[in-house]
């Protein structure tokens, strides 16, 4: 083990291996302590939407840090007000929308769970009050804090921490399962429009639309977790805008700050009236520094029409990987792409890529995830396809002939 690995295992919680000691980055590349250059197509897990050390990011952090960094929510700041108005506009909430700013995705989802609880206490004619059931999808990932974890059915994440928050029910990926799960105890359904951590898994056709109808019919909230899919990642500001569905609330984080920790809950319609003074808050949430960075990042994406680039580059990448060894297909939208493999060798492909200077991720045994910066161009697409093709070829050559697809 090298020095830094010794330090890491002595001083950091033991929660999984660290792949390299990264020291600096520029654009879509990062460098490790030995000077090895990597093409970063994971982007800090779908976070670094402008790549590394982008001048817009650097400038926003520096200027706001030198002006006013933190004040608490006893006060407002111009940056926070600008961000709230911007998120309402981008989400299309209209006048009635409201915004609560957080420091992470899981915290945005905690806020949404409390929103669901408040909603469940409302008296509704002919319905039970004290409705506490929350519906979640099989394969969902909503975060690691106790509430969000309770909405995350994956056993390795949740089981060591039982008892979880009660009354959470898991729905399978079918409209029949969705219809069977709704009853008058349901306060909310949480859905990722595309499940990132599950391997970039899309919902069945019509699923989101049916969830909207059922939530409305049962007076439950439709809460979309767009922590990974939001902030332009899928080529629209929000993935729900691809489906023509309007939620009651949506959560954001990851790309919204391009690397600065920040999240948000955005509400629509009457869901905006549920919280009242005393029911929720945060010390750091929405501080001027985080807000100013998000304004600069989102403003830059808008000014440069980077969402068009997200769609174009996403299509190029998906077309480019077709026909590479082991690749059976692609999933996702924009620059959130899952690449499915014919064999359960995603971990080996990730390692082979790493050793060739390419950072990708293997969320499941047979799927690779990429989530590069919105700023990638021809050169990054070509470099990715070259390195990824080499990695796939190397792994394919290790499979025995009977395992090699025809
Ligand atoms: C990453 C993620 C979260 C958790 O966000 P953190 O910032 O890591 O707390 C929640 N939901 C989804 C869909 C995510 O991708």
Quick tags:
single chain, alpha/beta, Aspartate Aminotransferase, domain 1, Aspartate Aminotransferase, domain 2, seven-stranded mixed β-sheet, four-stranded mixed β-sheet, globular, binds pyridoxal-5'-phosphate, pyridoxal phosphate, Acetylornithine transaminase, identical protein binding, PyrdxlP-dep_Trfase
Explain this structure to me?
The protein contains 13 helices and 17 strands. The chain has 406 residues and is α/β, with parallel strands linked by helices. The protein has 2 domains: 3-54 and 305-396, Aspartate Aminotransferase, domain 1 (Alpha-Beta Complex); 68-303, Aspartate Aminotransferase, domain 2. The strands form 4 sheets. A 7-stranded mixed sheet has the order 4-12-11-10-7-5-6, with helices on both faces. Strands 1-2-3-15 form a 4-stranded mixed sheet. A 4-stranded antiparallel sheet has the order 13-14-17-16. α3 (55-65) packs antiparallel against α10 (288-303), α11 packs parallel to α13 and α12 packs across α13 (378-398). It is globular. The mean pLDDT is 96. It binds pyridoxal-5'-phosphate.
């Amino acid at each position: 083990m090298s020095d830094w690995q010794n330090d890491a295992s002595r001083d950091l919680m033991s929660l999984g291996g660290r792949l390299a000691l990264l020291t600096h980055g520029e654009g879509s590349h990062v460098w490790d302590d030995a000077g090895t250059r990597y093409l970063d197509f994971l982007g800090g897990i779908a976070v670094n939407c402008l790549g590394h050390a982008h001048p817009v990011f650097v400038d926003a952090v520096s200027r706001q840090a030198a002006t006013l960094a933190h004040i608490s929510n006893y006060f407002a700041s111009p940056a926070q007000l600008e961000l709230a108005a911007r998120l309402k506009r981008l989400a299309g909430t209209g006048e009635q929308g409201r915004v609560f700013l957080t420091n992470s995705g899981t915290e945005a989802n905690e806020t949404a769970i409390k929103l669901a609880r408040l909603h469940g206490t409302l008296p509704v004619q002919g319905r039970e009050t004290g409705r506490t059931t929350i519906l979640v999808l099989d394969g969902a990932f909503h975060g690691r804090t106790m509430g969000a974890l309770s909405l995350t059915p994956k056993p390795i994440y949740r089981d060591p921490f039982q008892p979880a928050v009660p009354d959470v029910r898991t729905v399978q990926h079918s409209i029949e399962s969705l219809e069977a799960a709704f009853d008058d105890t349901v306060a909310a359904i949480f859905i990722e429009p595309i499940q990132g951590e599950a391997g970039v898994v899309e919902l069945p056709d019509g699923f989101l639309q049916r969830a909207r109808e059922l939530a409305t019919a049962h007076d439950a909230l439709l809460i979309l977790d767009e922590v990974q899919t939001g902030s332009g990642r899928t080529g629209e500001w929000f993935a729900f805008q691809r489906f023509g569905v309007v939620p009651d609330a949506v959560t954001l984080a990851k790309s919204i700050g391009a690397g600065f920790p920040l999240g948000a809950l955005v509400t629509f319609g009457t869901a905006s009236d549920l919280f009242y003074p005393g029911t929720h808050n945060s010390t750091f949430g929405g501080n001027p520094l985080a807000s100013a960075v998000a304004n600069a990042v989102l403003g830059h994406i808008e000014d440069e029409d980077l969402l068009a680039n997200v769609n174009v580059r996403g299509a190029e990448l998906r077309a480019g990987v077709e026909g590479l060894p082991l690749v059976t297909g692609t999933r996702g939208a924009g620059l959130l792409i899952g690449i499915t493999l014919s064999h359960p060798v995603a971990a080996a492909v990730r390692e082979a890529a790493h050793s060739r200077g390419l950072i990708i991720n293997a969320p499941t045994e047979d799927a690779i995830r990429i989530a590069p910066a919105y700023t990638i161009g021809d050169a990054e697409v070509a470099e990715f396809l070259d390195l990824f093709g080499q990695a796939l070829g190397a792994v394919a050559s290790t499979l025995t002939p009977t395992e090699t697809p025809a």
